[in-house]
Amino acid sequence: MHKIRRFKPSTASRRFSVTAGFYRTCAHDGMLPHSPAEHVRRPSAPAESPTLGFTHLQFEALLTAARESANPYDFALVAMLGLLGLRIFEATSADLGEEHGHRILRVCGKGTKVVLVPLPPAVGRAIDRAAASRVRGPILLNTRGARMDRHAATRRLRHLAETAGIQIARAHPHMLRHTYVTTMLDAGADLRDVQIAARHADPRTTMRYDRARQNLDRHPNYILAAYIASGT
């Protein structure tokens, strides 16, 4: 219990779900008379995600700084996280490929599930620049020529944010995944399509990303006012 308490409620609840599922399976298979986790109360996770993404203008500034960087991996990093919505461990282990005439990334996501992510031309060019003449191995490399990890990615992202003049405390890679979701919603993409693109099992997870920033741009009041105005 002492180890669980140092985690945030959402993390503790998610990890306890794994434990509860294990005991439930043991009870179902007759290995235990009942699950000891059956009546344990789980911490309630907030409806809003505690992580905020970049604003639209901040994201554009970050893309510009990454595109103009002398480090070829910077633009690929920002594009893979912010324009494809990859998690950092997915981006650092993705493989280039082709499927039905589309350039794609083969990504090993959560639960070791392999998914195919299509590449828009701009992202493809960023990846080609990073990969150069290499035909195999990781796309993103650190300063020592080894596979980039999340620590190196965080350092690069903070350097880019500083270069772009973005006033934000402790920028980290997952902020770009949040930006990916909120930017698609701002662009008018359907919630279901965004959920599928982000590979969220539950649409409520997708909505948690959007609620956190308390965005008022798409508030129904504006839709109602425009509808009434059009009829007068």
Task: Outline the fold blueprint.
Blueprint: H1 2-5, H2 9-28, H3 56-68, H4 72-82, H5 88-91, E1 95-99, E2 102-108, E3 114-118, H6 121-131, H7 150-163, H8 174-186, H9 191-198, H10 203-211, H11 220-230
Helix pairs in contact: 3-4, 4-6, 8-9, 9-10
How does this structure look, described?
This protein has eleven helices and three strands; from the N terminus they run αααααβββαααααα. With 232 residues, it is mainly α. α8 (174-186) runs antiparallel to α9 and α9 (191-198) packs across α10. Helices cover 51% and strands 7% of the residues. The mean pLDDT is 83. β2 (102-108) and β3 form a beta hairpin. It is globular, with a radius of gyration of 21 Å. A three-stranded antiparallel sheet has the order 1-2-3, with no helix packed on it. The chain has helices at residues 2-5, 9-28, 56-68, 72-82, 88-91, 121-131, 150-163, 174-186, 191-198, 203-211, 220-230, and strands at residues 95-99, 102-108, 114-118.
Low-confidence stretches are none
Radius of gyration: 21 Å
How would you sum up the major sheet? 3 strands, antiparallel
Kindly report the spatial arrangement of strands forming the biggest sheet: 1-2-3
* Average of pLDDT: 83
State the shape.
globular
Q: Structural class, from helix and strand content?
A: mainly alpha
Helix content: 40-55%
Question: What fraction strand?
Answer: 5-15%
Terminal residue distance? 63 Å
User: Could you state the order of secondary-structure elements as H and E?
Assistant: HHHHHEEEHHHHHH
Count the helices. How many? 11
Number of strands: 3
